[in-house]
Hints:
Layout: H1 2-9, H2 13-82, E1 86-92, E2 97-101, H3 113-120, E3 125-130, E4 139-147, E5 150-157, H4 159-209, H5 224-274, H6 279-311, E6 319-322, H7 323-340, E7 344-348, E8 354-357, H8 359-375, E9 382-390, E10 393-400, H9 432-442, E11 446-452, E12 456-464
Parallel strand pairs: 7-9
Antiparallel strand pairs: 1-2, 1-5, 3-4, 4-5, 6-8, 9-10, 10-12, 11-12
Helix pairs in contact: 2-4, 4-5, 5-6, 6-9, 7-8, 8-9
The structure holds adenosine-5'-diphosphate.
Amino acid sequence: MLLNQINKHRNSLSFRLTVWYALIFTLTSVLALSIFYYHISKVTMENTDDELLEELEEFYALMKEGGVDQVTLEIVMESESEGGGVFYRLITMDGSILKELNMEAYEGVGVSADALAAIGKKEQYFFETISIPGNDYKVRIIYGAISPSMIFNMGISLEDNYEFLGIFRNLILLLMIPLFFVAAFIGWFLARHALKGVEEVTQTAIEISKGSIDKRVEVKRRHYEIDRLANTFNEMLDRIQTLIKGMHEMNDNVAHDLRSPLTRIRGIAEMTLVGNGSMHDYTEMAANTIEECDKLIEIINTMMDITETEAGVNQFKSEPLNIVDLVLSACDLFDPIAKEKEIQLITLLPETLVIDGDKSKMQRLITNLLENAIKYNKEGGTVTISVKQENQLVNIQVEDTGVGIPEEDLPHIFERFYRCDRSRSLAGIGLGLSLAKAIVRAFNGDIRVKSALDRGSSFQVILPA
Ligand code: ADP
């Protein structure tokens, strides 16, 4: 059961964090306890050494005051009171044993040659730790000269030390198991707490995948990282929702704008068939069909142009273009139509102004704005096109004295298929400004509009020089 659960969650981040936390916490605790254990064992050994040294000093003083007899008496007394755990010996400088007491438990403990050598070199004392065959515990031994001809030798079993440290060791080993589980629980709790926000994002994503695109992750302002994730996720959702809405709107518009010419083509064809169908009717039907088809082709081509332009600037050519030449040839192109409406085309241009760009796209941008300025102008009006460079920016302005754009329409005129009510009587498909905006954006520029109803509009394009 537990194994099944572990197997199921083995690859989850919270499981891994829990295991890592438990391992690191346990290992760190074991390391800390081991260091503590090492220090405790060192201190215990130092205590034993201090005890032995104190004895040596005591016997040294006794030797000075009372001589060998006094020392021997004291050894006997102490050996009796200490029991078998401590042995005492008096040794000559060459290693002969003068007196030894309590040696029953320390059989085989000889006189250390190293100790004799050290004391021979006038060292005050010499310590050694040795094992005795058949005894589980080691012995700590001290040698020290108490007179020029006599060495005091004393040994103490480390049994008490080992027992004390043994309890401590067992305690550490016993602690490790609950420590691991406590650490695992804390790790699990922390991981769950930290990943709760991620889980909420996942739940929202699941609900969205089932169709609730309106859902958003709640930003609880508790953890900076999770809040950032939630905010980014929500922003992404907003964008996707706007895109989907835009796509829906565009689909509706495309369907609507394609349906009208198609309905008209069908109506004309039906009328011609139902009627007597003279040669003139058929010719007229063909002409109308061509006109409507042209409109359809224009819609489809412009849509494709917009999509292509929005897809990326990389596809464009970047060649040096003289904007002044482009404006002048656009004016030449529209001059006949302007004359027809008695509209005056005014140009305010520098001698030359060269920027890097794609010629066909720039031509399209300028002609779209110029065409609108003439189309939505009044008879006898003027269109002024000015080009100038300011700092690192090129400013192209197309100003007309036409019908103007109502304030409520201004935020929408760059949307696809948007046409102001008052312009519906005029030819147009509502894609010219969308394409203009896509082109300007593709070249990292901006397009702005200012308009006053019945007085005229001014479109301003700003491009990097
Ligand atoms: P179209 O001109 O084919 O309708 P556009 O995208 O070029 O499409 O323009 C969108 C709408 O913005 C137009 O239908 C018109 O209502 C308005 N508009 C654009 N330019 C002007 C202008 N210079 N003066 C007045 N209205 C304009």
